[in-house]
Amino acid sequence: MAAYQDTFTSIPLSELATLAQSKKDEGARFINIHAATVADGFVLTYTFTSNETVTDNCQVHVTADDVVPAISPLFLAAFVFENEVHDLFGINIEGIAVDFKGDFYQISIETPMAVPTKPEHATAVNTKYGATVPVKQRKGEEQ
Amino acid sequence: MAKQTIIPFGPQHPVLPEPVHLDLVVEDETVVQAIPRIGFVHRGLEKLVEKKDYTQFVFVTERICGICSFGHSLGYSQTIEHLMGIEVPPRAEYLRVILHELSRVHSHLLWLGLGADAFGFENLFMQCWRIRERVLDIFEKTTGGRVVLSACNVGGTLYDIDDETLKGICATLDVVRREYDAILGAFLNDYSVRSRLEGVGYLSQQQARDLSIVGPFARASNVNNDVRCLRQGGYAYLESFEPIMSDGGDCLARVIVRAKEVYQSIDIIKELAAKIPAGPVMNAPKGKPAAGTQASMRLEQPRGECYYYAKGNGSMFLERMRIRTPTSQNLGGLVVALAGCDLADVPNIVLTIDPCISCTER
Amino acid sequence: MFIPMLIFGLICAPILGCLLAGVDRKITARMQGRVGPSILQPYYDFRKLLGKDTGHTNRTESVYIFMYLLFVVIATVLFFLGGNFLLVVFVLTLGVLFFILAAYAPGSPYASIGANREILAVMAYEPMVLLVAAGLYLATGTFDVVAMTQASKPAIIMLPLLFLGFIYVLTIKLRKSPFDLSMSHHAHQELVRGMTTEMNGQTLAMVELAHWYESILYLGWVALFVIWKGWVGLIVALLVAALVYFLEILVDNNFARMKWQFALKSSWWLALILGLLNLGVILLLGLAL
């Protein structure tokens, strides 16, 4: 594999806003935001590229209670990913530019990607929404 | 103030190739604001990584979308190869690029047909898709599938294409090129077509940069983020590669960029088919992704740059697989381009970003 | 001649219109490199529509469509019975107005915008149609269709420019690209199906029937320019009508759809230039057939 370079750096949550601002100031291009479940919370990966050659992945470790500042006011394209991360993982992101408030994907299980499963559990989730899996409360419905 | 109507555009609409919903706030046929909604084909494919091991997951990625199918399997395979440090045999790299560029030709022909349909030129739509049938026949002859090829896997390709067939492919592409030349004149020079496309949905270069848009959508506004310039994989064997750019910024520029990319792809395929080396096509992966490793990858799909991320946890199942498709990135650009246009321009603008909503939502 | 022409206008015209629509689809398909449906396909569609349940968002819609069909039939029968040309034009316009009301009735955004566009289309072609009526009167000295068919020479000799202008607006009336703005037979435009979006079942069947009557009526107007007394005149007129329709299909397959601003502006300019020029020349030189 020739010429593909990527970097992974870890930053604390408090530096996220300054990182976004510095990337905006230097004219970097925003590529992606995604989350992954880890043992004690989530890891958010923010990907930018400054010179179109090296992909910079900046990783932020958060817990379910942390409030994450949104970068979509600076990078409008990020609103899609921030809504997605909120819906699928339940991470609390504040200040999303176009906020669908949990209705971006109409899913029936609350935060499906944050439910830790192994392959045998995955089958249970997919066929019967069992007692261990919380079902999303729709407005006005009793469960 | 003029009376405002809200027109619901999609998800079921004959002009849309994919289900996206736009609430168009319209004043007398001028769109004042467009509020997008997606989520109609969300299948949660990223969660399937817990059920399918890393050698099986490539078949899931192929089925994310029908048009970009081969691109996703290629990007996924490249990501896992980067993660596990697997060497791909050179012949496989050539074949992968040939199939990917064929995928680009068929995707752009499909798109040109849909674009023609959007501005009411059904004849051109039928002709484009008829030319595209030749490319689909090539796929079927070499890999057995017209849309979902199942040809790429971690470590190389599953099928070899012998040199006879490659010569046949080049001959077919010459025929495609001739037929394509004949209809391209209609796209670029016809008065009625130009009047529907010129000046419509304009995005300046600065707006394109701010909105981080990718693909031909960005290249038409003179912003280059073509990943093929990085020359990874089979693209490293090309003599040269220059991305096709335009500074029109409107729908016509995007049509021209994609139209010319078809020619460029045909040239790439012929160049690589002429100098493809002999050798094996698969270096089967052994072992599992080590715990705590992670890798990212970018690939230039027909619609733009696609970003992949994989994380291993020491078992046969990946811990996390992320696919960020170009259309998710371009949605912000779509909303900005739609503001202030005529109602009659909405299908044109929606189609010029080349929406692939199945990819966006996975 | 009364009974045969009555039968022609009432019964043969829709049958011919149906076959014409079928031939249209077949030729269009061949131009696009496809095989195309059978020539009787519009008739099969019509029968299928009659057998379906009709769901209405608003019942007045079917009343309006019935009035549209009624007036189109009256206009066609009047024309083929040889009545007054101006009366035929106005009865037809009244019918089209009922069609527009039917499109507004359900309150759907697609149908309403389709109706808006149809009003603009009517505004685009009415001036030319009225100029055609005036031109035919000046050329033949009468508004009576029967008398026009008995003229010794075809009216087109005096009205060439008017004929060209009429062919141009015929594209709008027949709803073919570049002017298939308000509704087209292909549901791919931005308005789903335009004016007929909310129509289904028997209501839509009535719309199809009215379209068949209309196509034959318009081709009758084309023939009126070219016809003269005797069998030769009749046959030439029919051939020219068929040729004009073929030209419309050709134009449909070679143009994208234009926006309403272009349709309105170009037809008014053409009406002004071609129509008034032609009429002006006739009046100034005091010509008559």
Characterize the largest beta sheet of chain A: strand count, sense, and whether it forms a barrel. Answer: 4 strands, mixed
Query: CATH superfamily of the largest domain in chain A, please?
Result: NADH:ubiquinone oxidoreductase Nqo5 subunit
Regions with little confidence, pLDDT below 50 for 5+ residues of chain A: 121-143
Q: What is the top-level CATH class of the largest domain in chain A? A: Alpha Beta
Features:
heterotrimer; A: 143 residues; alpha/beta; 2 domains; four-stranded mixed beta sheet; B: 362 residues; alpha+beta; Cytochrome-c3 Hydrogenase, chain B; three-stranded antiparallel beta sheet; globular
Task: Kindly describe this structure.
- The complex is a heterotrimer of chains A (143), B (362) and C (289).
- With 143 residues, chain A is of the alpha/beta class.
- Chain A folds into two domains: 5-106, NADH:ubiquinone oxidoreductase Nqo5 subunit (Beta Polymerase, domain 2), CATH 3.30.460; 108-143, no CATH class.
- Chain A has three helices and six strands, in the order E-H-E-E-E-E-H-E-H.
- In chain A, the strands form two sheets. Chain A has a four-stranded mixed sheet, covered by helices on one side.
- Chain A is globular.
- With 362 residues, chain B is an alpha+beta fold.
- Chain B has a single domain, classed as Cytochrome-c3 Hydrogenase, chain B (Orthogonal Bundle), CATH 1.10.645.10.
- Chain B is built from twelve helices and eight strands.
- Chain B is globular and about 65 Å long.
- Chain C is an all-alpha fold and 289 residues long.
- Chain C has one domain.
- Chain C has ten helices and no strands.
- In chain C, helix 3 (60-80) packs antiparallel against helix 4 and helix 4 runs antiparallel to helix 5 (109-140).
- The radius of gyration of chain C is 19 Å and the shape is globular.
- The model of chain C has no long low-confidence stretch (mean pLDDT 84).
- The B-C interface holds B 5-9, 13-15, 26, 29, 116-124, 126-127, 130, 190, 192-193, 195-196, 342-344, 346-347 and C 28, 31-34, 109-110, 112-113, 116, 177-178, 180, 184, 186-190, 192, 253-260, 262.
